[in-house]
Amino acid sequence: MGTRPQRMVAFGELLMRLQPHGHERIVQASRFEVGYTGGEANAAALLSGLGVETACVSRVPDNEVGQACVDHLRRFGIDTTHVARGGDRLGLFYLETGAAQRASKVIYDRDHTSLRSASADDFDWQAILEDTDWLHFSGTAPASGPAIVNILETGLRLARERGVRVSCDLNYRRKLWTPDEARAAMSQLMPYVNVLIGNEEDATTVFGISAAGIDVVQGELDTGSYQRIASQLMEMFELEYVATTLRTSISASRNRWAGALFDGDQQYLSRTYEIEPIIDRVGGGDSFSGGLIYGLLEGWDAQACVEFAVAASCLKHSIPGDFAHLSLAEIETLLAGDASGRVQR
User: How far apart are CA 277 and CA 254, in angstroms?
Assistant: First the structure.
């Protein structure tokens, strides 16, 4: 008998993405391109492409829009068995892609969505977590309301009982909830988390943790400050790892990209990539989460995990849409030092 393949479950809201053509602004657009996404689903899509069994857990309306979203996930190998049906609408967001010194912009339309009106009866956690190795969620899920926080906590508690490892991307979005709301909800869920992913702004806003030497507006990064933030998070919660992406935004079209992983004793820093031009940075953090989960599922050491996560998320910036459509070979090629982008024949 063969070894059972690794399985990852992603819990979170599924969304429709509406984007003007190219670099048009929303106010000038006469048409919008449609896509389907979700922070947790984005991480699952990368893992699915790398051969990990993945499943999304969410709730979508029982109509053609909900079906289109589910079909999109299925197209890329994501199991949708536990996507419940019901509620009024699929959440959506409008994306205006920036360039040069003009920043990208996101406008959310996520009130009264199917997930926000979900009940505990929509999710059979015993079945969801069967033969599961990893459960992933982000802060945008509990931002859907207290009912979702309680539903998620039920799943997290069972995951802990079954030895399923849990990762959380803080992913704070000020347009979805207040810092006080985020702090209360995330503090309730953190006791079940093994791997915490979040940048310095997330840690400061959600948990009141900050450190000197960081200026995201000026693009000044002090990696020692990130380690101090990670150490404080380790002291607050029983975590295996704290991870963060390190983005230096030179312009909307040009970024430097790296990452850090802290295990409680040592901080592991990845190499830094220069990304120019950026095709689509939305989903970059989610692909970092997916890459990190992949490395940890494979049992790699911390340095290998953060290098892989950063390489995968670096490549995501070259791909339109939220999903990182990447093969293991492509990521390994970049890790081996080939960043030339030459045509492969």
Answer: 6
> Stretch 294-316: mean pLDDT, rounded?
98
Helices in the chain by DSSP H: which ranges? 39-49, 64-75, 125-128, 146-162, 179-189, 200-207, 223-236, 284-297, 302-316, 328-335
C-alpha closest to that of 275 among 306, 243, 314 = 314
Closest-CA residue to 142 (of 53, 39, 291, 283)? 39
* Residue 159 phi, psi (nearest 5): -60, -45
Peptide bond into 20 cis (omega under 30): no
pLDDT at site 1:
44
Residue 177's identity, in one-letter code, is: W
What is the Cα–Cα distance from 198 to 243, expressed in whole angstroms?
A: 6
Question: CA quadruple 23, 326, 241, 162: dihedral positive or negative?
Answer: positive
* Residue where the block lists tokens 């019901």: 86
Q: What is the pLDDT of residues 12-64, one digit of tens each?
A: 999 999 999 999 999 999 999 999 999 999 999 999 999 999 999 999 999 99
Give CA–CA dist 127/131, Å, rounded. Answer: 9
pLDDT tens digits, one per residue of 258-275: 999 999 999 999 999 999
**Residue carrying structure tokens 């969620």:** 137
The yes-or-no verdict on residue 254 having pLDDT over 80 is yes
Q: Is 179 helix (H, G, I), strand (E, B) or coil?
A: helix
Q: pTM of the prediction? A: 0.95
Contacts of residue 184, Cβ cutoff 8 Å, sequence gap at least 6: none
Tokens of 104: 């990208």
How many Å apart are CA 294 and CA 8, to the nearest integer?
Answer: 9
Residue 219 has pLDDT above 80, yes or no: no
Q: What value, to the nearest 5°, has the Cα angle with vertex 263 and ends 261 and 269?
A: 30
- Cα separation of 171 and 22, whole Å? 26
